[in-house]
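User: Okay, second chain of the day. Same drill as before: sequence in, structure tokens out.
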Amino acid sequence: MKSNLDIVAACDSFPYYDDDPEVYKKLVSSFYQFIVPTCPKPVGFLLPWVVEKMPWNEDWTIDHDKKQVVLLAQDSQPEKISKQSEVIDETLRQARKVGAFRVLEKWRNELYKIHGPDRLITIERAGSPLFGIVTYGVHMTTYVIAEQGMKIWVPKRAQGKTYGGMLDNTVAGGIATGEQPFECIVREAAEEASFPEELVRSKAKPCGTISYFSFRDERAGGESGLLQPEVQFVYDMEVGPDVVPTPCDDEVEHFRLWTVEEVQAGISQGLFKPNCALLLLDFFIRHGILTAQNEKDYVEIVSRLHRKLPFATATAL
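Assistant: Same drill. Structure tokens below.
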């Protein structure tokens, strides 16, 4: 049985500088910074073997001394600067064509926005962990207040998906380019749980964000060890006993109504997808279920659910 802090650390697994400055600096110095000119901070980290295997073209500058991968450097022709998204897309499609990375076998035809630059730059979702950029998603916990207390709708992920067979949040998904978080949760709620749009628009409540920095493992699909810094927009939705989620796409096997105690046991047993466990811990904190009185690591858990990431991040979506 794992503690709640163990569960947080398993997902928020990237080292902290304050814990061991030398270990942190050694690790970070091994990465290549993903640089977009005009952006004041790196927008991601690339692993050295990714840099070695990627089929770069003349639109990229690979500086091995500075450990930087620069997209269309400042001296590039002006007409090319406006085509940064096309350059990324062309590079990833070539990498996919030659079979450079297994993670690209799950090509999604979904574009994520790279936040930080002063212009719109996008990247294919499947390629985002190769560049270690911050990705953004939405998660919603749907719950019922019954005579016996609170119960939470918990889905089981389809076996053929990443993290197959693990438990999930009621509704979750990635935010596509040009999509607002609330519109994303409305869309995902319909696709994954068959929740009517009017129900979600009237009942779903925004509850802030959580953030963490993970190393991907084999359950995520593709190569292990890729970097995954993420921000999740959090929503709660209380519904009556007459509202029952049902699978609408191939993401979920089934939904079941769990007691709080059952969910807590499932978290400690590692049954939940790692980031979903963090979302549920955040839910328990906000609802006064997990408190400083019953959790000895309360302050550290709360802090680590809101990690400051070392990249340019979104000021608005």
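DSSP finds eleven helices and twelve strands in the chain.

User: Thanks, on to the next one.
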